[in-house]
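Listing S7. Sequence submitted for prediction.
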Amino acid sequence: MSTSNVVPIQPKENKPHNIALEQSLLGALLTRNKRIEDIVEFLEPEHFSERIHGDIYRAIRTLFEQGRTADDKTLAQYFIGDKTFEESGGTNYLKSLLDSVVSFVHVKDYGESIYDMHLRRSLIDLGDTIIDEAQHPKPDTRALDTVEEIEKQLFNLVSLGSTQKNIVSFTDALSEAIARAEIAYKRDSHIIGITTGFLDMDRMLGGLHPSDLVIIAGRPSMGKTALATNIAFSAAKAFKTDQDEHSEGGPVAFFSLEMSSEQLAGRILSSESGIPSDCIRRGELKFEDFPKFMNIARELSQLPLYIDDTPGLSVTALRNRARRMKRQYNIKMIVIDYLQLLSGGGNKKSNENRVQEISEITRALKGLAKELDLPIVALSQLSRAVEQREDKKPQLADLRESGTIEQDADVVMFIYRQEYYESRKQPESGTDEHLAWLERMERIHNKAEVIVAKQRHGPIGSIPLYYDARLVKFGNLMK
């Protein structure tokens, strides 16, 4: 091929592309390898409209990462035996790319344009798929299933830059693991994930890890919502205080299927101001407390905490909303209150079998945690079997409609407050039993226990916490 003829065969389909722009970018990279640092984070070989251009870009990137020079001579050696390279002009084509350089200054702009055209081509392909599947649906596929799949593909396009990133080499996975360990090492708290706000819990769990499904279970009145709210608040507050990429916190999406957003906000306002929520609702504020109350309210209004209180959400709708919040707010954690209030995907068989439906929901939530690369904290009810035992401490077998909850979850934690049960056993006043009961109540007053019954990547055990029933708030227990 002549060095003056630098344009390869044009793509057959009339889709957005710019051959000359791709050639100019590659020529600039061959001349000044270091400029690849301007685009390597977002531009992939698959984003080029011509396969040979993607192959050349991959070769330049590989040689650069190895600390070697990438020019027409080293690339000719790299492509020895490659038929596609030879058919595209081989060494002569590499030399022609050097002649196509227009500017070194605009390498990033060129890369962004190539990426933009890749997205547009992908949107055209996706549009064709939508039309085809809408006109020729499979017998067992509902329209809602198609909408869900299309939204997932759109999310992948926007968030990942490519729909073909499911396969990760062990080298890349190992590098990511080392990088996360280094982050944990450099942090004073030595946690790798999102902070829970509780010192002992962070020590045992190492924080809440990306892609993990965390189940917090307990009987009514144990404080499930309070604990989840405290964790969500701590994560959002940590991010507001330290907004860098290695922050222990992050924006939080809170799906409250039981309480309204106003009630949830009232709880946080109460716990932070020290004023019981029922007093806030009735407007029973002391004159001297009002300025403090308003200052705290203003501070809390800046937290990156996003509440969705839509009742009766399906897991499909929750998944779509979570993807949207990931795009809009870059959320780092999802909290769901609570699991049993979600409905499944609408499959008739699963709707008739609640255990199977819960199993589908937990599998979907685990998949979503991996897809969005963030921890999902889901609250769960426990069966009444707990109340029928002398020892009220929950066990894994007590998970209500368990199905695969235990199997899918990376962490299962139970909330247990002995004070709650003991307070209902008050003997007659003035007796020896009553004195012994008062002593027991004194020992367990304002104390709670979080039992880590399962942790896929760490130890199990018990975490003592402080619990203020007046403010419905958990805290670190001073030892």
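Caption to Listing S7: primary sequence and predicted structure tokens for the chain studied. DSSP finds 19 helices and nine strands in the chain. Strands lie at 213-218, 252-256, 305-308, 333-337, 376-381, 411-416, 447-455, 461-468, 473-476.
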